[in-house]
UniProtKB/TrEMBL annotation:
Cleaved signal peptide residues: none
Matching SMART domains: GGDEF
Protein name as catalogued: Diguanylate cyclase
One GO CC term on file: plasma membrane
Residues covered by the GGDEF domain: 410-549
Subcellular location per the Swiss-Prot or TrEMBL entry: Cell membrane
Recorded superkingdom: Bacteria
SUPFAM superfamilies linked: Nucleotide cyclase, Sensory domain-like
Keyword S-adenosyl-L-methionine: no
Length: 554
């Protein structure tokens, strides 16, 4: 029994040795390739994990900083605009003369137009409200800081306070009022609800995981919906690591617990003259959630690479099948329209001579096919007589460029140009001279256009210019330039002198309907331009007419 057991163990050990010591080159190649891929994949995954953690944190802080800077500019501008509103109101004649009925009407109209203010109030020099759009007269505010600031001639913005009239948390903007003799006669108050400021901040909150909120200088929340009920009942500041960092201007970047107890990375910025603290935070859990997903992808890629490598090793043994597969793949690629696809001759290095010759022949045919197709495509888009773009190019490519330009917010115009009395040129001098005249006019067009101005032969003796990014006035000026240039350059050849003029019709497009079709849009502009061209001919030729009627230069 012991002999049998020993024999079994010996066979098992021999099998393991054979596995670990492959005898054939193919087996060894597969084993070492697999080990190399596994080690490389493991090294890359570990290095990536460490580096991504560091980079993710740095990137998150950079993004927070960028968004804080953007929101700071926006909020500072909003505060400045509200302060300017207050100053302008205090300079109104009715306010300076204390015409209370008129003041009340002005205040009510202003709060309708400027909805950021919940109410406007006039407070007399004794600190008592006499005019209030909230209908709260007779309130004493002489204990408020903004009253004493106004008495000293200063405008101010309060911290979060509970409004005496509304009983809701508000921010108060105040500005002193002076009569016509320059004497202080009270102050103007404008109250802004926290919901309004929440809306201002929220309009720039584009992130899905980042959390932005405002605190006043003592830490009372100015924004964030979950705080508003708390502030209404009991205004109290919050204290977290980010508020402590802001208090001492610390640049620490480590994770900390936010007001909800979650571990976050955060950044801050003082705004509005150091009166508000703007805080941006991103959850550490959400930040690293992407890392775990990427690690899964990397591991999957490593395993896939291992499988593909084994497949590659098997394919290497198929020196006949592999070249044929590449040839078949190449024909499929050409069938899909990728002309000029080239098979690497190195793939056929160990293939029979017949297959190597077949590879060379395939690459030669592919190169010639690409050249031929390119010439055919170019000839399909270029007018062979004038070497300008043809009508097909304009309807296919020009219409797409027109649509993109309009989507970017730029105006565009179309010019239709017709050679006057061209039939007489053909009848008098023959069609050969007529062709030369067409080339002559095309040359003038090429010299007068360029960049975003596409010139084309539209048909017969008619040309077209698609002027992108030009206002209607500029396009009309271009049309006049073209008309004068053609009139100034006589056709002279073989003793023949022909004075040429053109009639030009133009149409502009400055707007774009939703879902507009590029080709239909260009056809509509051409139709309008054709109307203008017809009118130019009816009015005597050698002139420019504009269907859309652009404004004349002053």
């Amino acid at each position: 029994m012991s002999i049998c057991w020993g024999h079994y163990l010996g066979e098992r050990r021999g099998s393991m040795i054979r596995i670990m010591r492959p005898r054939t080159v193919k087996q060894r190649f597969r084993l070492w390739i697999a080990l190399a891929i596994l080690m490389l994949g493991l090294s890359i995954n570990i290095a990536f994990y460490i580096l991504y953690q560091q980079e993710a944190q740095a990137e998150a802080l950079r993004n927070l900083s960028d968004k804080l800077n953007l929101q700071t500019l926006f909020i500072d501008r909003w505060v400045q605009e509200r302060e300017l509103d207050m100053r302008l109101l205090t300079e109104d004649e009715a306010v300076r003369t204390l015409n209370k009925p008129l003041m009340e009407a002005i205040f009510r109209d202003f709060t309708i137009l400027q909805r950021d203010f919940a109410s406007l109030s006039y407070v007399n020099a004794d600190g008592v409200t006499e005019v209030d759009t909230y209908s709260a007269m007779g309130l004493h505010v002489n204990e408020r800081d903004y009253y004493w600031a106004a008495k000293q001639g200063k405008s101010s913005m309060s911290d979060v306070i509970i409004g005496k009239a509304s009983g809701e948390p508000v921010i108060i903007f105040s500005a002193p009022i002076y009569d016509q003799e320059g004497r202080w006669s009270g102050l103007l108050l404008g109250s802004v609800k926290l919901e309004t400021i929440q809306r201002v901040v929220g309009s720039l909150n584009t992130g899905e995981t980042a959390d932005f909120y405002l605190l006043d200088r003592v830490g009372v929340p100015v924004t964030k919906p979950r705080f508003i009920d708390d502030v209404r009942s009991n205004p109290r500041p919050i204290s977290t690591e980010i508020t402590r960092r802001a208090a001492i201007q610390s640049v620490s970047k480590g994770a900390y617990a936010n007001y909800k107890g979650d571990s976050v990375f955060g950044s801050y910025q003082w705004i509005a003259g150091h009166r508000w603290l703007l805080v941006g935070e991103v959850s550490e859990k959400e930040l690293y959630a992407n890392l775990y997903g990427l690690m899964f992808v990397f591991i999957a890629i490593t395993l896939a690479t291992l499988v593909l490598s084994f497949s590659g090793i098997v394919i290497l043994t198929r020196r006949i099948e592999r070249p044929l597969e590449f040839l078949l793949q190449g024909t499929r690629i050409i069938k899909e329209g990728q002309y000029g696809y080239r098979i690497d001759p190195a793939v056929f290095k160990h293939a029979p001579a017949e297959l190597q010759e077949l590879c060379d022949t395939y690459n030669l045919m592919s190169r010639k096919l690409k050249t031929t197709v390119k010439l055919l495509e170019e000839s399909a888009m270029i007018d062979p007589l004038t070497e300008l773009y043809n009508r097909r190019y304009m309807m296919q490519n020009g219409s797409l460029r027109l649509l993109r330009t309009l989507e970017e917010g730029y105006p565009c115009s179309v010019l239709l140009i017709d050679i006057d009395y061209f039939k007489q040129v053909n009848d008098t001098h023959g069609h050969l001279v007529g062709d030369r005249v067409l080339r002559h006019v095309a040359g003038v067009l090429q010299r007068q256009t360029g960049g975003d101005e596409l010139a084309a032969r539209y048909g017969g003796e008619e040309f077209m210019v698609l002027a992108l990014r030009l206002e209607a006035v500029q396009a009309k000026a271009l049309a006049e330039t073209i008309r004068r240039a053609i009139a100034a350059e006589l056709y002279e050849a073989d003793g023949i002198r022909i004075a040429l003029t053109v009639s030009i019709g133009g149409a502009a497009c400055t707007g774009l309907a939703e879902g507009a079709d590029a080709k239909v849009l260009l056809e509509q502009m051409i139709e309008e331009g054709d109307k203008a061209l017809y009118r130019a001919k009816q009015l005597g030729r050698n002139r420019v007419e504009w269907e859309a009627g652009p404004p004349e230069d002053g």
